[in-house]
């Protein structure tokens, strides 16, 4: 697996601002000639220049932010100065809450936020448990027959079933599962699509049409009052909103549905796949989690959650968070000009040895032993921080924990091969298949 540890620290504030230090263009040229991943360029900038650094790929420099105080400044303290300008997946998610900005985003966020906190989360418990039981039964069948499975595919199947139940009230049926494979195809294609919007949409037109058809059918069924075995889903909330909020057109409801499908299964599936790859390299971590307490005990649940958190530290759901400066600002003593592109990189913050002891090591104990993780809120942000932090944080942690409580005691995947590196797109995902058979 690819790892990128680099030291980095944030220079102390100065009464007068200075230009952000910029990486030598010759180093950028070398990186381009070698065809390196973008994260390699980021790592060079942080290693050489610190937690606020710049590099130039076009006419203007891009500011890279990895130091926790600067991360908090950009994302949590001054989100009005550092705004989201667009989203790489906009051709897929349209004007859904991930891509929306300004007042539209505020309205959409307000409606959805109540669905993922407190009482809202409780309505998903049965649906998460149902999807986990289905996945556990499937794995039990693989174990009996010795059938080869792909762990990444299995995690996507579980996460898609979970979010589909939560949206529609129905388990994921084979037809919808088959057609929604187009979501993964579009997400995987995003980094290589043409810059021209029309050309990009044309390149994935068939996949988008399949997604639209599934979404349209689900919306029509919900509008006709069709509720699943667990009652109405989140899609019904969006349709009810259309009765009093004219902005919730059929198109916006489709965009929110697809946004929740993408955000609700791609990141969770990727995290769970990485977790199993990490456990393959660190089998003692599984044994320690299971030995932490009896089945269903708070101690075991805490230990399982620590496995998830440590995986998210190494492979955060949001590995890079792009922003645009709306005005001149002083960031940790450095001058950031209006219009500057600013990239917050949780991936590198989480691998900073100034913040995390032995940061490349998989060590879930960081999240069960007090004092072993950075106290600063900008030091650990796998779902972002501030007003645009991921709405589904609690949902993702809950579904991951419930599935692992079912699978960890019963099965140990024996991988036939593992991906040699990571692929950096919307998420950091394993760059290749993960075939395995199951042992007890």
Let me know the CATH homologous superfamily. Answer: Cytochrome P450
Q: What share of residues are in beta strands?
A: 5-15%
Radius of gyration: 22 Å
Envelope shape? globular
Strand order of the largest sheet: 2-3-9-6-4
Number of structurally distinct domains: 1
> Could you please say which CATH topology applies here?
Cytochrome p450
The CATH class turns out to be Mainly Alpha
| Biggest sheet details | 5 strands, mixed
How are the SSEs placed, and which strands pair?
Blueprint (H helix, E strand, L loop, with lengths): L17 E2 L5 H10 L3 H12 L2 E5 L4 E5 L2 H10 L4 E2 L6 H4 L8 H12 L5 H4 L2 H21 L3 E2 H18 L5 H16 L7 H7 L1 H19 L10 H9 L7 H32 L1 H9 L6 H17 L6 E5 L3 E3 L2 E3 L4 E4 L1 H4 L43 H15 L4 E4 L6 E3 L3 E3 L4 E5 L1
Parallel strand pairs: 1-8, 3-9
Antiparallel strand pairs: 2-3, 4-6, 5-13, 6-9, 7-8, 10-13, 11-12
Keywords:
440 residues, alpha+beta, globular, Cytochrome p450, 13 strands, disordered N terminus, 3-stranded mixed β-sheet
Question: How would you describe what is shown here?
Answer:
The protein has a single domain, classed as Cytochrome P450 (Cytochrome p450, Orthogonal Bundle), CATH 1.10.630.10. Helices cover 50% and strands 10% of the residues. It has 17 helices and 13 strands. The two termini are 25 Å apart.
Short description:
This protein is an alpha+beta fold and 440 residues long. Helix content is 50%, strand content 10%. Mean pLDDT is 92; it is low at 1-14.
């Amino acid at each position: 697996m690819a790892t990128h540890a680099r030291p980095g620290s944030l220079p102390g504030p100065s009464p007068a601002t200075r230009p952000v230090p910029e990486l030598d263009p010759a180093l950028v040229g070398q990186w381009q000639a070698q065809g390196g991943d973008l994260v390699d360029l980021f790592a060079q900038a942080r290693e050489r220049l610190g937690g606020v650094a710049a590099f130039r790929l076009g006419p203007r420099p891009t500011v890279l932010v990895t130091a926790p105080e600067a991360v908090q400044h950009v994302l949590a303290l001054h989100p009005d100065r550092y705004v989201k300008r667009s989203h790489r997946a906009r051709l897929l998610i349209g004007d859904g809450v991930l891509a929306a900005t300004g007042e539209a985003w505020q309205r959409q966020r307000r409606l959805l936020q109540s669905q993922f906190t407190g009482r809202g989360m409780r309505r998903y418990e049965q649906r998460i448990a149902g999807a986990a039981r289905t996945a556990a039964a499937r794995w039990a069948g693989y174990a009996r027959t010795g059938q080869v499975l792909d762990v990444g595919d299995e995690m996507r199947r579980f996460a898609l079933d979970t979010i589909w139940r939560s949206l529609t009230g129905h388990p994921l049926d084979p037809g919808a599962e088959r057609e929604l494979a187009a979501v993964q195809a579009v997400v995987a294609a995003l980094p290589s699509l043409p810059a021209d919007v029309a050309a990009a949409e044309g390149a994935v037109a068939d996949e988008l049409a399949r997604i639209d058809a599934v979404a349209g059918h689900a919306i029509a069924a919900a509008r006709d009052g069709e509720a699943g075995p667990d009652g109405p889903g989140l899609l019904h909330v969006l349709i009810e909103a259309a009765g009093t909020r004219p902005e919730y057109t059929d198109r916006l409801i489709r965009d929110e549905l697809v946004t929740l499908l993408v955000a609700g299964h791609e990141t969770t599936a990727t995290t769970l796949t990485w977790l199993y790859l990490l456990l393959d390299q660190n089998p003692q971590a599984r044994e320690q989690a299971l030995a932490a307490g009896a089945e269903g005990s708070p101690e075991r649940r805490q230990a399982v959650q620590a496995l998830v958190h440590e995986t998210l530290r190494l492979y955060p759901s949001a590995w890079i968070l792009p922003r645009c400066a709306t005005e001149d600002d002083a960031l940790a003593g450095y001058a950031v000009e209006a219009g500057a592109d600013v990239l917050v990189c949780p991936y590198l913050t989480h691998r900073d040895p100034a913040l995390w002891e032995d940061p490349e090591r998989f060590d879930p104990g960081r999240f069960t032993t007090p004092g072993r993780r950075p106290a600063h809120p900008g030091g650990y942000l796998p779902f972002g921080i501030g007003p645009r932090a991921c709405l589904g944080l609690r949902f993702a942690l809950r579904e991951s924990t419930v599935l692992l409580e079912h699978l960890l005691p019963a099965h140990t995947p024996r991988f036939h091969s593992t991906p040699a590196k990571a692929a950096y797109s919307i998420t950091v995902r394993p760059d290749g298949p993960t075939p395995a058979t199951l042992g007890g």
